[in-house]
């Protein structure tokens, strides 16, 4: 496993999860998706559909709706609470987050076809002192990250299956996104595509 620091506050562990761990996690994710199916969120205001499909695990799920972004405890289609996070993800957070409290949201992004994610900040959380930890599974993706202003310089690098990225501290509010996914570059996910699991602490823990 190689540990890289592409910028202040950004750490990238190449192939932090080996193939067996990735396969086990994909099976766990698929079982949970049977309970909390992928759906296509809508952009605030315009209501335009995302190219990415999403679901969530954990006590809080991140939602994008015509009314805005928010965290909520239930799936917007089924109305049921989000399923608990797989233990392997909690263990990953404990190993890499360098933060003493559990994550509350695992946002699951499914990229198929031309799906991508525009540059954005993760800023709907109260606990901005906690980092964002993100795991890539399946097809390779070109990830772009810049600074805390939309128009500033950016860098990009390929995220491959098993890679884990953490951004926090000076990079916690960095603009980031996915330029493109290289279809067919991995055989990990049945049906193809890329799954990204993004772990975040949402609320500030009681003192
Ligand atoms: O798919 C990725 O690697 C990035 C996902 C992301 O930026 C997000 O969900 O906020």
What does this structure look like?
By secondary structure, the chain is mainly beta. The protein has a single domain, classed as Sandwich (Jelly Rolls). It is built from two helices and 13 strands; from the N terminus they run ββαβββαββββββββ. The chain has helices spanning 19-35, 87-96, and strands at residues 2-7, 10-14, 53-57, 61-65, 68-72, 105-111, 117-120, 132-138, 141-145, 155-159, 164-167, 176-181, 194-200. The strands form three sheets. The chain has a seven-stranded antiparallel β-sheet, covered by helices on one side. It has a four-stranded antiparallel β-sheet with strand order 7-12-9-10, with no helix packed on it. It has a two-stranded antiparallel sheet with strand order 4-5. Strand 1 (2-7) and strand 2 form a beta hairpin. The longest helix has 17 residues, at 19-35. The protein is globular. The model has no long low-confidence stretch (mean pLDDT 98). 2-oxoglutaric acid (AKG) is lined by residues 107, 109, 117, 122, 134, 136, 143, 159, 176, 178, 196, 198. 2-oxoglutaric acid (AKG) binds at residues 107, 109, 117, 122, 134, 136, 143, 159, 176, 178, 196, 198.
């Amino acid at each position: 496993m190689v540990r890289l620091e592409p910028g202040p506050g950004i750490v990238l562990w190449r192939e932090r999860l080996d193939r067996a761990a990735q396969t086990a996690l994909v099976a766990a994710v698929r079982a949970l998706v049977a309970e909390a199916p992928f759906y296509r969120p809508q952009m605030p205001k315009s209501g335009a559909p995302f190219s990415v499909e999403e679901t969530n695990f954990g006590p809080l799920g991140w939602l994008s709706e015509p009314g805005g972004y928010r965290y909520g405890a239930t799936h917007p289609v089924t109305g049921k609470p989000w399923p608990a996070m797989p233990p392997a993800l909690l263990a990953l957070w404990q190993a890499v987050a360098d933060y003493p409290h559990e994550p509350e949201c695992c946002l699951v992004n499914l990229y198929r076809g031309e799906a991508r994610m525009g540059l954005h900040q993760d800023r709907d959380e109260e606990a901005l002192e906690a980092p964002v930890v993100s795991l890539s599974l399946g097809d390779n993706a070109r990830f772009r990250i810049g600074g805390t202003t939309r128009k500033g310089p950016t860098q990009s690098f390929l995220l491959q299956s098993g890679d884990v990225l953490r951004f926090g501290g000076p990079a916690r509010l960095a603009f980031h996104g996915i330029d493109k996914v290289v279809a067919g570059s991995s055989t990990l996910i049945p049906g193809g595509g890329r799954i990204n699991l993004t772990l975040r602490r949402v609320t500030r823990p009681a003192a």
